[in-house]
């Protein structure tokens, strides 16, 4: 038996994801980038595929470092087709802990702290004058991106930026498996403040260890109630 066939007892320490230099965006550009990322990270239904032409045109109006990854992602989705893309989506986001689209999961896992963290998101939406109106938990990344896109309140950008660590862990996991969705998450990182060294070290810890694993019942939260303004209620 070749010694290379034996199970390794030590492995190389995982590296931090490459640091990205944020792209200078005005408010309108950032809103469009976040809305595009929000829509492209949703589950790829027939309707999702039907609007790709529109999303591609919108992406083309953004600075090149944002536009190119989005257009590449859209081209790959078209080439794969709906059946293959849906299967890849499920395997990527529903079966891998480090590819969660729920931001509080990276910091709290399925622990008792997560309930409080989810409520914090709801309170942030309400403080900016919006209410959650969807069958998703309040920390669902596409929802948080939509909030950042539609709300002019600084709270919306602060909420997203405060969970940059989780976004970076998601990016690192997706890039590590050469997932096409890494290109979409990359545009989010490029649109947010730069990651400092301490944040990058915390990201590495999460990449290496994963989120906390204490399992508790969160059924009391139910399916927390895309957004509507209070004025529409």
TrEMBL record:
PANTHER family: NITRATE REDUCTASE MOLYBDENUM COFACTOR ASSEMBLY CHAPERONE, NITRATE REDUCTASE MOLYBDENUM COFACTOR ASSEMBLY CHAPERONE NARJ. The gene is narJ. This is Nitrate reductase molybdenum cofactor assembly chaperone. It comes from the Bacteria. Keywords: Nitrate assimilation. The lineage of its organism: Bacteria, Bacillati, Actinomycetota, Actinomycetes, Micrococcales. GO terms for molecular function: metallochaperone activity; unfolded protein binding. GO terms for biological process: chaperone-mediated protein complex assembly; nitrate assimilation. It holds the Pfam family Nitrate_red_del.
């Amino acid at each position: 038996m070749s010694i290379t066939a034996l199970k390794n007892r030590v492995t190389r320490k995982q590296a931090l994801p490459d640091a990205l230099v944020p792209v200078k965006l005005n408010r309108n550009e950032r809103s469009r980038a976040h809305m595009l990322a929000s829509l492209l990270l949703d589950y790829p239904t027939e309707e999702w595929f039907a609007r790709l032409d529109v999303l591609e045109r919108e992406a083309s109006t953004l600075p090149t470092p944002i536009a190119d990854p989005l257009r590449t992602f859209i081209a790959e989705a078209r080439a794969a087709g709906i059946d293959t893309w849906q299967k890849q989506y499920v395997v990527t986001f529903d079966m891998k802990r480090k590819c969660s689209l729920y931001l509080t999961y990276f910091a709290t896992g399925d622990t008792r702290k997560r309930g409080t963290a989810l409520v914090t998101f709801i309170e942030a939406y309400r403080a900016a004058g919006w209410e959650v109106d969807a069958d998703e938990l309040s920390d669902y990344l596409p929802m948080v991106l939509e909030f950042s896109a539609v709300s002019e309140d600084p709270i919306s950008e602060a909420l997203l930026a405060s969970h940059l660590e989780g976004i970076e862990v998601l990016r690192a996991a997706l890039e590590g498996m050469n997932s096409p969705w890494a290109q979409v998450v990359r545009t989010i990182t490029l649109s947010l403040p730069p990651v400092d060294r301490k944040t990058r070290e915390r990201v590495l810890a999460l990449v290496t260890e994963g989120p906390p694993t204490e399992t508790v019942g969160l059924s009391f939260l139910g399916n927390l109630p895309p957004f509507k303004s209070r004025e529409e209620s």
